[in-house]
From TrEMBL:
One of its GO terms (molecular function) is L-amino acid transmembrane transporter activity. InterPro entries: AA_transpt_TM. This is Yer119cp like amino acid transporter. Keywords: Membrane, Transmembrane, Transmembrane helix.
């Protein structure tokens, strides 16, 4: 149900169509953008850092993410007020009427002439804010930088998701099936999932589709429940895997949580679709999104780490459960357990959720591409959407046709250099610039600067330090000598 407001001014009748989604739907939409592949890497993170340290790191990242989301909400709210004040004189109606209608296409414009008057039906799409728009409202070039960052991040994330679910699907077939086929089915899955993501990418107002976000949330909730129940069912398997309680804080673990909590590129879009935009609801949505994500990540992380302990492979839990040669799947098969079906159920639910997340990420790419001059020449919004999504999927699918590219490197690059700045550096940068323009040099200004410095420092240190350490360890003469002596002794 949408509401039309009819304005009479200067002999022109203007009908503005408005609508929105509820607070709960806004929260589920936020969860749809939050719950991606990062969730399935949390068991490895908890096993690496230990439950206590990992929980503290997760809460820390979740708390900062809550502040970051809230900052974007509040800045969007203030920008809406600023724009309404600028257009106040133009929008003052002589007479106003409101009617309710059912309309599926908010972007439809109907124009006709009647007694020298023109009636136009306009949607709120013309007044929609964007993450890029917030940056441009402060500094023009900042918006352009953010636009490029969002495109690169979203394309990389869709690329990662498509590659991940294609590898999972190939693993589910099993070695015997793959060998009998005679070719690598990975390429077929890449094309298949590319077509599915392309089809979903045709929705122009994705955040308002309640059922899509609810399916994504349900798939995550079911997988969390299954992994949790496995701890009580597979007691014999769990007892053979003891967790070492002496763990420490890890930069890679923090990076995993940052990647998992990243949703800021869609926050402003969700704000646009909210029906009741008041400070109370904005705080509620930001808090529920961050806290809810922390709860689900903790459940998955703790349950998975307790199940595998220190013997957990250095990979995500979905890859482990999808691999017929993994220790837990072999255990279920050897014991003729009726829970062997989780070998297929959990990965399939993960694939459904990640496909939806890929569509959400793709929508962020097309929003940016639609503003490029080349694509602006396409007048039809439907054709423009089809062209941009098709080109992006073709690019991503072509890159994923080279399976030699490792998931680990892509994951680290996205987490450190893409999600991290967009999630923290830019939102707090907005706040710092606004405080500077208002000559407000208080706690908000200096606090924002601290968050910006930490974000940028972590991006470089978190990515380079483990690799430098690994390089030095591999080329350490003492380590090489010890290895040589050990090999000679063994021989």
């Amino acid at each position: 149900m949408f509401r039309l407001k009819i304005y009479f001014k200067d002999g022109i009748i203007t009908l503005k169509m408005s609508g929105g989604i509820s607070v709960f739907s806004s929260i589920t939409a936020m969860w749809s953008t939050l719950f991606g592949v990062g969730m399935y890497f949390t068991p490895k993170a908890f096993a690496k850092s230990g439950i206590l340290y990992a929980s503290l790191q997760l809460l820390g990242v979740g708390g900062i993410s809550f502040i970051s989301i809230l900052v974007l909400f509040i800045l969007s709210y203030e920008e809406i007020i600023r724009q309404s004040e600028i257009k106040k004189e133009e929008d003052i109606p002589l007479k106003t009427y409101s009617i309710s209608i059912q309309d599926k296409d908010l972007e439809t414009e109907v124009k006709y002439a009647q007694e020298n008057q023109v009636m136009a039906v306009k949607s709120d799409d013309e007044n929609r804010l964007s993450y890029t728009g917030l940056g441009k409202s402060l500094i023009e070039w900042l918006g352009s930088v953010i636009d490029i960052m969002i495109m690169i991040t979203s394309i990389s994330t869709v690329l990662f998701f498509q590659k991940f679910i294609s590898l999972i699907s190939t693993s589910l077939l099993g070695h015997s099936v793959v060998d009998s086929i005679g070719f690598n089915p990975y390429y077929v899955f890449v094309v298949l999932y590319g077509l599915i993501i392309l089809s979903g990418g045709q929705f122009k107002n994705l955040q308002s589709i309640d059922w899509l976000s609810k399916i994504s949330f349900a798939s995550i909730a079911i997988n969390c429940l299954i992994v949790g129940v496995m701890n009580f069912v597979l007691v014999d398997f769990k007892s053979a895997h003891i967790t070492n309680p002496t763990k420490t804080v890890s930069l890679s673990v923090i990076s995993t949580f940052i990647f998992a909590m990243f949703c800021q590129n869609n926050v402003v879009e969700i704000f646009n679709d909210m029906k009741d935009k008041n400070v109370k609801n904005l705080i509620l949505v930001a808090a529920a999104a961050s806290l809810g994500a922390c709860v689900f990540y903790a459940i998955m992380g703790i349950a998975g780490s307790l199940l595998f302990g220190d013997y957990m492979p250095n990979e995500d839990i979905i890859s482990i459960l999808a691999n017929e040669n993994s220790e837990i799947v072999k255990h279920l098969f050897d014991t003729n357990s009726k829970f062997y079906c989780i070998h297929f159920i959990v990965p399939c639910f993960a694939i459904i959720g990640l496909l939806i997340s890929s569509i959400y990420q793709l929508s962020a790419v097309t929003r940016s591409l639609n503003e490029v001059k080349l694509f602006k020449k396409i007048k039809s919004k439907t054709k423009k959407q089809a062209v941009t999504t098709f080109l992006v999927i073709c690019l991503i699918t072509t890159i994923n046709m080279f399976p030699q590219m490792g998931l680990g490197l892509v994951f680290d690059i996205i987490g450190h250099f893409m999600c991290n700045p967009l999630a923290y550096a830019f939102p707090f940068g907005f706040l710092a610039i606004k405080c500077y323009n208002n000559k407000d040099y208080g706690i908000k200004f200096f606090g924002s600067l601290i968050f910006i410095i930490i974000s940028i420092s972590f991006a470089f240190v978190g990515f380079t330090y483990p690799r430098v350490l690994q390089y030095l360890t591999q080329n350490d003469p003492l380590n090489m000598t010890t290895t040589t002596v050990s090999n000679m002794t063994f021989n």
